Fold this sequence. Notes:
Blueprint: H1 10-22, H2 27-34, H3 36-43, H4 48-53, H5 59-68, E1 73-74, H6 75-79, H7 84-90, E2 93-95, E3 100-103, E4 106-111, E5 117-122, E6 128-129, E7 145-146, H8 147-155, E8 161-167, H9 173-178, E9 182-189, H10 192-204, E10 211-214, E11 227-232, H11 255-264, E12 268-283, H12 288-293, E13 300-311, H13 312-322, H14 330-346, E14 349-361, E15 369-373, H15 383-398, H16 401-406, E16 408-411, E17 415-420, E18 430-435, E19 442-445, H17 447-455, E20 457-461, H18 462-473, H19 477-483, H20 485-493, E21 497-499
Parallel strand pairs: 6-7, 8-9, 8-11, 9-10, 11-12, 13-15
Antiparallel strand pairs: 1-3, 2-3, 4-5, 12-14, 13-14, 16-20, 16-21, 17-18, 18-19
Helix pairs in contact: 2-3, 13-14, 17-18, 18-19
Amino acid sequence: MRYRTSSDRPDVAARLRDALLGASFTADGLLELLGAPAYAALARSETVPALRATRGDTPLDLLVRLFLLQQPVPHARVAAVLPVEACLESGWLTRAGGDELAAAVDVRPYGGPGGEDWFIVSDLGCAVGGAGGIGRRDEGVVLGVGGASTTLAGITVRTPVAAALDLGTGSGIQALHAAQHATRVTATDLNPRALHITALTLALSGTPAADLREGSLFEPVRDDEKYDLIVSNPPFVISPGARLTYRDGGMGGDDLCRTLVQEAGERLSEGGFAQFLANWQHVEGEDWQERLRSWVPRGCDAWVVQREVQDVNQYAELWLRDAGDHREDVADYQARYDAWLDEFEARKVKAVGFGWITLRRTGAAVPSVTAEEWPHPVEQPLGDAIRAHFDRLDYLRDHDDAALLEAHFRLGAEVVQEQVGLPGAEDPEHVVLRQNRGMRRATRVDTVGAGFAGVCDGTMSAGRILDAIAQLIGEDPVLLRDRTPTQIRLLVEQGFLEPVR
Length: 501
């Protein structure tokens, strides 16, 4: 079902945008007005510092109180800054009684990756998405920016594409990002309220409208439609019931995430990427990596990165707090907690993993599927690093060991060497190569691997470098050529070495 709404008036959104920008109601303007501590507190849904910082009479003070802090403001003061009647008619504002006006939605400045002044619209009290206790129990509530949404935006591959699909768009954050590099953007959601909010987000951010469609998962997408990019921050929470549309997918266990991944392959154009956030069950007697590999559709390379694991008790507590159940009757809270544990026990689930799943449609005869655990800090945005990962897979598939020895490589950006051993020892116990960019990996190498990586500057072939090392250490060059390609492949795959094309 395609979504249309008569209340999304782009002329009013354009006038409102001009007024907001004119008052410096931007991410930079807020930081300057509030100061770093109050600005950071807002991201935690704490409003008292911002209330104290906006006791002045400037237009920016008024807009922060109105749209971010949901405080009623005298009509006359609002009229001096905003097109009041148009905003009332279009549903941006509402009458609060007496001679005061209030915001009908939360409007939050959001800085784009290129310095763009964007605005994310969400339901009142729900501007900060994620498991932090949103303070509202409405089933169809629409959240704003949270850690999950910014993580997905950061890992998404940002190359120019013809068509992008944002599945489960929510407040439209991923659609907003995709519109910067996709000719056509389609955004879907089961919740019609979310599609309305997305339309407002795009219009207020000065971005062209997306093709908005109502429905679950791929239901609104025709069988013949293909996309170069599919992104989704789905309702991935594994819960004993679909209480909140934005987080509970309504399927048992991790079936929603599995279905999303499995059905994405046939919707991708050749070379296209699908990128998701997901939760998955750690089931007793099963290897979680094998479980995730079984989700990958045919004809797709995949890279699964598990960022965090929680035991079932921690997981239940996290999402019970998200719904505010910890603030309710103790008996009700305990009953809900018990229901979560019953569900996990019935499914033999001992823990829940969270992470990223990236698919790429490939014509390779044998696709590559990597599932790994990486809980360590990374450098966002990671989109370029993820695209480079799949480029390196193609390179390694196309080069056998003989071709690898004829190839030229250079050391990756900001790779350093660490030597580990006892103080005063003549030789280190082992050598570690460490990245200071992207995934920030670290890997052990032997002395040959360390020497090889250190010499790689693109001028000599891998084989010639190994011959020189063999002469230096007194080893048979033929044997060294035979045993080293495996180590070279690992260093290339993980980005420590880059092929010189």
